[in-house]
């Protein structure tokens, strides 16, 4: 099976040597355009199969991911786990509320209550978002068996202690992230990419100051 990063590169989802703003607000030169993956159902299935295979020996009863990308991941990973194990594995998702926390709506808290859960996420820069999902799943009365991300961009700083649960990544693509004040690309006055990532919003906010 092809490595996850190789699959992403094949479909043009990995962009390098540019100036990006990540979801965390940090800046960097490598961007994984996860949204470029999801229209390709074959490749999405391959990536999620790789994630599911990592847990074939674990008793997983439900898969939970944060909207929006996590909806697709949770469904595909649950589908492959169901096939591997020969039993139904549920796939549900959390949504952001007004306070930026991740919540289980639509009765999904009852679906996972008392179950053994795998939390999935596409990318993580700081681990902050996925930890919110872990906390929400536990509050719903479920047991978090592990967290699995498609690609870990910072294996030094994002780990089990960061996300609050056993943590693995299907693949790693190290992409150093900088605070704005320390960003070498800002210091070089390198233009920010506004086509992908959060560069457009970042520049709009900066213009209002």
TrEMBL record:
Residues 35-153 form the Phosphoribosyltransferase domain. CDD domains: PRTases_typeI (cd06223). Its cofactor is Mg(2+). GO terms for molecular function: magnesium ion binding; orotate phosphoribosyltransferase activity. Orotate binds at residues 125, 153. One of its GO terms (biological process) is 'de novo' UMP biosynthetic process. Pathway: Pyrimidine metabolism; UMP biosynthesis via de novo pathway; UMP from orotate: step 1/2. 5-phospho-alpha-D-ribose 1-diphosphate binds at residues 96, 121-129. Belongs to the purine/pyrimidine phosphoribosyltransferase family. PyrE subfamily. Catalyzes the transfer of a ribosyl phosphate group from 5-phosphoribose 1-diphosphate to orotate, leading to the formation of orotidine monophosphate (OMP). This is Orotate phosphoribosyltransferase. It comes from Candidatus Beckwithbacteria bacterium CG2_30_44_31. The lineage of its organism: Bacteria, Candidatus Beckwithiibacteriota.
